[in-house]
Design goal:
Distance between the termini: 20 Å
Largest sheet: 8 strands, parallel
Strand content: 25-35%
Strand order of the largest sheet: 9-8-7-10-12-16-14-15
Structural class: alpha/beta
Shape: globular
Order of helices and strands: EHHEEEHEEHEHEHEHEEEEHEHHEHEHE
């Protein structure tokens, strides 16, 4: 065990130590812990900037040791066009929650993509129909790729559709994911046609207006609404939210930042219409899917405990591997 110094891990280091399969497992465990009331509610704050914003998420998770993690992510949707930089950049600080010692500082990009996709996979495990075979991914960036790969770990997908406002990105996504997953992935310009054929739909865009409409969603569909993580973003129309069973990651976060926020704002639903937080479903305190016909929406704004779980996993694997890049911040 490392007794001094703080591990410093780059994105490549995180990729080396974090597999999507392991991430799904620890994220499910984090949701269960939260649903069982074994950890405190996580915290979240946001700061707006002229072309984007900063999100701060923090929480404590009692695992083999008690861990605290705080993540600062910058989200600037026009970065690639303006600066050739990723939309999302950031860092995670992982600490020992018993004595405060900084254990690791690591890049947050890989963890954010993996833990967000892992949450969708966990939600699909409990909320999607078991016979779901066709998925549509809206938003063909790094997050969309992680989402489809995570779904393929849980569901026996036979086909997928890729939709993006940039046609070339959808085509690249389809080519790469088809080769990686061994299933046909079709780029589409007709989102409605793809949705009408799909059992599962994931929206992971930076949209500021609803584009997923009720009339195109067939009975039994599972929808993971991932992109709306601040009050300006929206992907699902309120009428769709009102017609579905709603499960959220964190109720108050979704009511202030997710697609739920917009549905509440126009009076389509209220907080009391939300069926459950995902943690209570995973913990067995609330039922998941009750019928093959119901439409279920998972409103995912990102729970800090997902970051704690994933960062702790990366740290423990790095420690076990004898990873030696450290820094003494108090020197």
């Amino acid at each position: 065990m490392i007794t001094s110094g703080t591990l410093v891990l780059t994105r490549r280091d995180v990729q080396h130590f974090l597999t999507l399969k392991d991430c799904i497992e620890v994220v499910e465990h984090a949701f269960r812990f939260y649903g069982e009331g074994k950890t405190l509610p996580p915290a979240m704050a946001g700061v707006h900037a002229s072309e984007g914003g900063f999100h701060l998420k923090a929480g404590i998770l009692p695992l083999a040791r008690s861990y605290f993690a705080a993540k600062v992510n910058a989200n600037f949707p026009n970065n690639r066009e303006r600066f050739n930089l990723p939309t999302i950049q950031g860092v995670i600080v992982l600490c020992d929650a018993q004595n405060g010692r900084p254990l690791a500082v690591m890049d947050s990009m890989e963890i954010t993509a993996s833990r967000t996709a892992a949450a969708t996979a966990v939600a699909a495990k409990y909320l999607a129909r078991k016979d779901s075979r066709i998925a549509t991914i809206c938003g063909c960036g790094a997050q969309g790729r992680a989402q489809l790969q995570a779904l393929a770990q849980i569901l026996k997908l036979q086909k997928a559709f890729a939709y993006d406002i940039a046609d070339e990105r959808a085509s690249e996504f389809a080519h790469e994911c088809s080769a990686k997953l061994g299933i046909p992935v079709h780029a589409t310009k007709d989102l409605n046609h793809a949705i009408e054929q799909s059992d599962v739909c994931v929206t992971c865009t930076s949209s500021r207006g609803a584009f997923l409409k009720r009339q195109h969603i067939r009975a039994g569909t599972f929808i993971a609404a991932v992109g709306a993580d601040n009050p300006e973003k929206q992907e699902l129309e309120p009428e769709l939210m009102a017609s579905a069973k709603i499960v959220v990651d964190i109720l108050e976060q979704c009511a202030s930042n997710g697609d739920l926020h917009h549905a509440i704002r126009v009076g389509a639903v209220s907080r009391s219409d939300v069926h459950a937080e995902l943690g209570t479903v995973v913990a067995g305190k609330k039922p998941g899917r009750a019928s093959q016909e119901e439409i279920i929406i998972f409103d995912s704004t990102g729970m800090a405990l997902q970051d704690v779980a994933a960062a702790a996993l990366v740290f423990e694997k790095a420690e076990q591997a004898g990873f030696e890049r450290t820094m003494e911040f108090a020197a």
